[in-house]
Amino acid sequence: MNPKPAIKGRGAQLNVPNRFFEFSHETRNDFLEYCQKEGELPDKNKTKYLEVFPKTIVNKVESTDVGMAYSMNAYQGCEHGCIYCYARNSHEYWGYSAGLDFERRILVKKEAPKLLEALLKKKSWQAKTIVMSGNTDCYQPAEKQFEITRQCLHIFLKYKHPVGIITKNALILRDLDVLKALANDNLISVNISITSLTEDIRRVLEPRTATIKKRLETVKVLSDNGIPVNVMIAPIIPSINSHEILPLAKAAFDNGALSIGHTIVRLNGAIGTIFTDWIKKTMPDRADKVLHQIENCHGGSLNDSRYGTRMRGEGKIAEQINSLVKLARLKYFKNKGMPILNTSLYEQYKQGQLKLF
Question: How far is CA 345 from CA 83, 159, 297, 349, in A?
């Protein structure tokens, strides 16, 4: 295999039409020919950061398949560019494409820390774990510039409120000081996503993420500092990373993770078109095989919205994957698991300081 994406540094290789728009933008061949003759680039492939002003920042999660009650996202869109990302479809609600726009038009919520603090100060709010990155990665490249995630972690620490993090970026180690302070009161858990141990696969699946080596180092550093880590082997894609389940589980165990989680890839909405275009360009030798095996896991369709089966799939291939994950848990994580976070301190700190009376 020698994958070569046409647009370097990006997962998606096209912008698909927004399903909510009547009109769509098309790049015509005559325009491309003109650019070639004039020595111009038809697409500068630059990332733009656009500030938005939401009224709330924490969302209640209604899905029965997702292990979280509340989530918050400091950014919409994600420069990591993971080709399989389920969050791509949400970019259409903001008026953009789920394809390249998702990776190049990043919406920034600078008011997130203030909105979070306003919520935590409400008399009606009761402590339940809020997960940062329920949709898009809170440590994507934009965080290095805006530091919104770090500000929010300080808010959680101030109010002694439990918080979970999902990321695939080593930038989380920048905030080790705050994470350690949260861990002292059992207020933090971290999920590190590691999809493959092969850099060639990582580069095309997740082009702007931290390297595998960096992610494993991140798991170790967090674990060594008393911060509980779960490694997400997700998504598992048949014939791309499905053969790596046991090696990934061992690597997670060797670096101090307390557990592993997994999902089987599903390609809902616009993601089916984006993924199909991508795999035919980057892995033409196995494209049809992979697509048919994904369909085999979801009742003959790339798209699967059925609660209860969409994350784990069905059929022989899905059974094999789920059995391998079960075996990995028995082999490396028996009698281990992530702690239940502490919700008992929050009421005492609700006004920003410990109550004396």
Answer: 40, 8, 44, 7
Is the pLDDT score of 352 beyond 60?
no
Average of pLDDT values for 272-287?
95
What band does 256 get if pLDDT is binned at 50, 70 and 90?
very high
* Cα–Cα distance for residue pair 149/110, rounded to 1 Å: 10
What's the CATH architecture for 30-263?
Answer: Alpha-Beta Barrel (3.20)
Chain position carrying tokens 């912008």:
15
- Burial profile 312-347: b = 16 or more Cβ within 10 angstroms, e = fewer: bbbeebbeebbebbeebbeebbeeeebeebbbebbe
Residue showing tokens 């898009």: 136
- Which amino acid makes up residue 290? V
Supply angle C-alpha 63, 66, 70, rounded to 5.
Answer: 80
For residue 164, what is the enclosing H or E element? Answer: strand 163-167
SS3 of residue 49 by DSSP: strand
Contact 162, 187 (CB under 8 A): yes
Distance CA 309, CA 305 (A): 8
- DSSP-based three-state secondary structure for 242: helix
pTM of the predicted structure, to 2 decimals: 0.90
Q: Check: CB of residue 342 under 8 Å from CB of residue 190.
A: no
